[in-house]
Design goal:
- Keywords: Membrane, Transmembrane, Transmembrane helix.
- The protein is mainly alpha-helical.
- It has one domain.
- The protein is built from four helices and no strands.
- It starts with 5 loop residues before the first helix and ends with a helix.
- The mean pLDDT is 90.
Amino acid sequence: MSILNGEVLITYFPAALLLITFEVIMSIYKSDVYQWTAKHAVGNLFVNLMWIVLILVVAMDPKLFNPEFATYLAGTYNSTSEKMTDIIQLVMNAVVCLVVVTNIIDTYSGFNMVKEKEKEKSDQI
């Protein structure tokens, strides 16, 4: 029995593939430049925002979870289907929060690296 509805996930695959492509392009660009630039930090911000939007859209999709899975869990743990649905939703909300926090930290780190590089350049002059 699957937890997630595969048909729903397939509809989000093109957007995820596009974002993965952006991530790969940014990594290649960064490996060529060898330093974090403002252009790279803004691109990183854009990709992180798009990941957050995609995760939120996927998480808000009411058809994402297979409804039979909550019933299966309820039978396994001697609970109600509604309680299992609430627990699944709580876990999904925690995952969304973690993704948002991780992307915010990544974006902040990118701009912080740019700031440090600019400070080093100004100190050398």
